[in-house]
Amino acid sequence: MKGGGEMSKSKVVLVFGARPQFIKSATVIREMIRYRINLTIVHSGQHYDSEMSDAFFSELKIPRPTVNLQVGSGSHAIQTAAIMKRFEAVLVKAKPAVVIVPGHTNTTLAAALCAAKLAIPVAHIEAGLRSGDMTMPEEINRILTDHCSSLLFAPTQTAASNLEKEGLRKLTHLTGDTMVDVLESAFPLAERRQTSILDRFKLKTRAYVLVTLHRPSNVDDPIRLGQILLGLRRVADKLPVLFPVHPRTRAKFASLGVLTKSKHTNIAMVPPQGYVETLALLKNASCILTDSGGLQKESFLLHVPCLTLRSSTEWPETLVSRSNRLVSNPKDLPREILSVALNEDLRRCLHHLKNPFGDGHASRRIAGIVERTVNHR
Ligand code: UD1
Fold it and tell me: 52: Cβ below 6 Å to ligand 1?
């Protein structure tokens, strides 16, 4: 029975640890509870600041994790190894029928490797993404995770085709993207709160640029980071810039001696925002500059022009009709940002794009497949 049925005895473990994973799992967890799946939630502790972790649990009504592995920060090897060591002990005790891993962080790969080595089937949410850029840690994580998984939940047709090319067609389920489900469920609240959120930052609708940057390729090199800041100052001469600063970026600014309060009065550097705030700020922005995967998609879904400060993307579906544009040289930022931010025709045209990310029911499909897998083995 959908949403009801007998209490499953087989345990399912869902493991996550970083901000985007909490968001993309929220509606999947909600659906798994509806299906009465015997779910254990494990937090790796990869993100530990309240504004990067706790805030999302209360906002998206995600049940508290049963276990927190508290791994914290470290090099890739240290972080991945610490998660594996601690997660293996959890798996040996819990003996789940399936381990669910969302996204493509170090937590995703570490948990998938652990489960696969214990012969526990792995289910990967957001399987099949490929940017083609092996210098991104996330690209390594997603390829390896897909190849040790038994259930691959592809968010788009492109992702499903990527998996087919790698010989993984039989394991693939084209479910749609769970981030559409989450966005649809939170958007009414974002709309209700948008006026007070804009007032808080003294912003006006379609008269500011939203910026989020945290990828090592942008923020770890002081010269590149300096060029980005210079570009943002040029933009701020014409339009206000709101920059919620990720902890990684904040740490780099601190080491460079850049004050979090920018000298330019038209640039506001603020702490990372919650999900509802981010949706409201994105929807009302003239455009967004980002290096996040999730925001490329969210801006597509909310019809807001996006510039991605990277030379590749794992979401090629967004690169249509100038909805999203890749910018690799920070020196081009002022020209690129101002050309899309002030372009009302572009904005109108984005409303007519076909949505390739699914119908808002991906989470229900995923929960249904997991339920059938654990209860009818
Ligand atoms: C991670 C994910 C990335 C995801 C991003 C979202 C990997 C390889 N990367 O990147 O896919 O898009 O999360 O935010 O898994 N830090 C804090 N407080 C926190 C978390 C991090 O101060 O709560 C700082 C630490 O200095 C840490 C640095 O941020 O060293 C980077 O954190 P890390 O977990 O390595 O990856 P992210 O850059 O956040």
Answer: yes
